[in-house]
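RECORD TYPE: inverse folding
INPUT: structure tokens
STRUCTURE:
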């Protein structure tokens, strides 16, 4: 009888353990989050004077362009994502549908952070933030007239703020992010290393003074991260043509200069931000995906770093520019097929973290969002759920 009870207890413990493991999501599905949909952030007012961030561009599209085909509306309304109660709802919906990481577009202009209220006041203060991981993509591009629809058609290349920083400013940024974000318990890590993604490499190099200087600065960043108690830094490059080679880099006799360039800078992984960065998006979604899969395979054989597959929901930035390349037939059904292809890629690379990135949670003005809308309802979110929750 005693042995029977002992066996039963062992069985129950093992069953509970298996159940607990089964509840853990197998894949990390990370959606980029563009933090411009915030109310009462004074630094957003010069671009969107209504005080609701870039919702203003969405809300006024038909008024500015009567009869234009683009007429999207958010089912949750023009919400303030810097409100922790709103973000709590978004976290619940994201996790329910299989998104368990937000990659925050993170900005630093004019010597200080920009658009941080969604992250600091919304996400980090949400009462359920423990359900969700996050990491930063430093969007270190220039700010042009494009954000302000009143100026978008007037000298679109005019630089309002530059994304370049010198070494002193770079160190200030890194030290701040290590303390403020990397040490947060919800910050996303791979093998214990905080993940930090950089968007624009030419801007980084230009600001720091050259490739050698940039490599030294990034190596310093890694050492500072280790000093803070982490095993290292997972330095992630945004993969697109402008980032993968540089005219000032001498690869010598090496037959793979792109790979050597990325290694020289010290990047250890990469992913994409948007299909528009590397293929013609003025096409049918299924045609685009053929190019995407070829790109995944090319990266996999070209570079030594780890590639995490990326899937974009769509592309159409008409709300900002009126005329745009337009991704066609990017239905939730076709998006779901793309997610399955990304899942297959991950499954074929069992030695790497099962991370997939998606553009995006809320890029409304580029028409690449998971959030529910008047056209597809919850279709895109349901597509993620079908692939990564229902089939677990």
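DESIGNED SEQUENCE:
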């Amino acid at each position: 009888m005693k042995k029977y009870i002992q066996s039963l207890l062992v069985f129950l413990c093992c069953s509970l353990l298996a159940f607990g493991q089964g509840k853990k999501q197998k894949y990390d599905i990370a959606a980029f989050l563009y933090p411009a949909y915030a109310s009462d952030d004074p630094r957003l007012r010069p671009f969107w004077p209504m005080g609701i961030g870039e919702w203003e561009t969405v809300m006024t599209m038909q008024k500015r362009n009567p009869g234009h085909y683009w007429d999207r509306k958010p089912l949750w309304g023009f919400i303030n994502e810097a409100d922790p109660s709103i973000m709590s709802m978004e976290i619940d919906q994201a996790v329910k549908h299989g998104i368990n990481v937000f990659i925050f577009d993170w900005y630093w202009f004019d010597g200080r952070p920009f658009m941080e209220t969604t992250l600091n006041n919304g996400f980090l203060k949400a009462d359920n933030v423990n359900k969700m991981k996050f990491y930063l993509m430093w969007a270190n591009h220039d700010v042009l007239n494009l954000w302000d629809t009143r100026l978008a058609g007037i000298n679109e290349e005019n630089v309002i703020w530059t994304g370049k920083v010198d070494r002193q400013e770079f160190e200030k940024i890194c030290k701040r992010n290590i303390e403020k974000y990397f040490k947060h318990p919800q910050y996303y890590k791979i093998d214990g290393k905080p993940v930090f993604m950089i968007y624009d490499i030419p801007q980084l190099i230009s600001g720091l003074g050259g490739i050698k200087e940039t490599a030294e600065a990034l190596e310093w960043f890694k050492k500072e991260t280790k000093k803070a108690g982490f095993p290292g830094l997972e330095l992630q490059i945004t993969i697109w043509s402008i980032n993968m080679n540089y005219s000032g880099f001498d690869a010598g006799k090496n037959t793979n200069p792109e790979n050597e360039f990325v290694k020289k800078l010290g990047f250890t992984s990469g992913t994409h931000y948007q299909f528009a960065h590397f293929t013609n998006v003025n096409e049918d979604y299924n045609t685009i995906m053929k190019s995407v899969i070829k790109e995944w395979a090319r990266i996999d054989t070209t570079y030594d770093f780890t590639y995490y597959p990326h899937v974009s929901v769509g592309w159409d930035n008409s709300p900002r520019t009126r005329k745009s390349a337009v991704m066609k037939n990017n239905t939730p059904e076709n998006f779901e097929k793309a997610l399955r292809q990304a899942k297959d890629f991950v499954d074929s690379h069992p030695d790497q973290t099962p991370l997939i990135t998606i553009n995006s949670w809320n890029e409304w003005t580029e028409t690449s969002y998971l959030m529910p809308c008047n056209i597809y309802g919850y279709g895109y979110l349901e597509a993620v759920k079908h692939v990564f929750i229902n089939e677990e």
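NOTES: DSSP finds 14 helices and 13 strands in the chain.
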